[in-house]
């Protein structure tokens, strides 16, 4: 099953050096989840060949503009393009006020149902579940209420060994039971042991998105053992004081977080506009945690 994330924006605060503000597109089993929606996200979707119409769920971490200024444009375009499919938006409650004001004064009545789910930054909770995954919030420590998100893939059904079943002429109608782990008794009394005809599915994967935060460890428990951890790394560690003042993280701290929480891979992003090239940030983090990559725009990472 596909479980991958494409980076649409990795800049903090302002768009600079061809870097756009935060946005990521998660593809889980061909369902699309947009995580944050900085200014220019629509253009980025087009640039990297994604259809906005495929997005059914949007998650906004907090109400600093670099994480949601692209949303009104995106929602409007969906309306203008004739979307009728519902969309669900998970975001701080005040965002609905902001959107309603914008729709009111542009006299826009959306053609499609927009379900707004307010999220609070008080305590972590599961906010979404479908057959593929669950999504839970991470309470981050930023200047305004801010949540990250954990995307936990669900355990899939067992995989049937098709060649063997075909060879023994086992009818297709038995496959669903085998996938669920059931031993079968055929009409002639033959018993098929599940373990002989199926293999276990892959271990479910975990992706955490930690946007703007002071790296204070308060949320580490919620991001244990990620297959891929995205963590903001706004500054180099020489700017630690500034990072602390602005409630952000350094590349070194992001790498230490990956180690402390047992992540397999680390993506760093939300780069300050002071960095024209990102290599120093990558080097700083990689020296501590080898499996670090830059969340560079247009890159897709398998989780
Ligand atoms: Zn930000
Ligand atoms: Zn912020």
TrEMBL record:
Main EC class the enzyme belongs to: hydrolase
Keyword Metal-binding assigned to the entry: answer is yes
List ligand-binding residues for Zn(2+) 2: 66-67, 212, 270
Record keywords, A-Z = Endonuclease, Hydrolase, Metal-binding, Nuclease, tRNA processing, Zinc
InterPro entries attached to this UniProt entry: RibonucZ/Hydroxyglut_hydro, RNase_Z/BN
Q: How is the cofactor bound?
A: Binds 2 Zn(2+) ions.
Catalyzed reaction equations: Endonucleolytic cleavage of RNA, removing extra 3' nucleotides from tRNA precursor, generating 3' termini of tRNAs. A 3'-hydroxy group is left at the tRNA terminus and a 5'-phosphoryl group is left at the trailer molecule
The subunit structure is: Homodimer.
The record's similarity note reads: Belongs to the RNase Z family.
* Role this protein plays: Zinc phosphodiesterase, which displays some tRNA 3'-processing endonuclease activity. Probably involved in tRNA maturation, by removing a 3'-trailer from precursor tRNA.
Q: What is this protein called?
A: Ribonuclease Z
Species name for this entry?
Pedobacter steynii
Gene, per the UniProt record: rnz
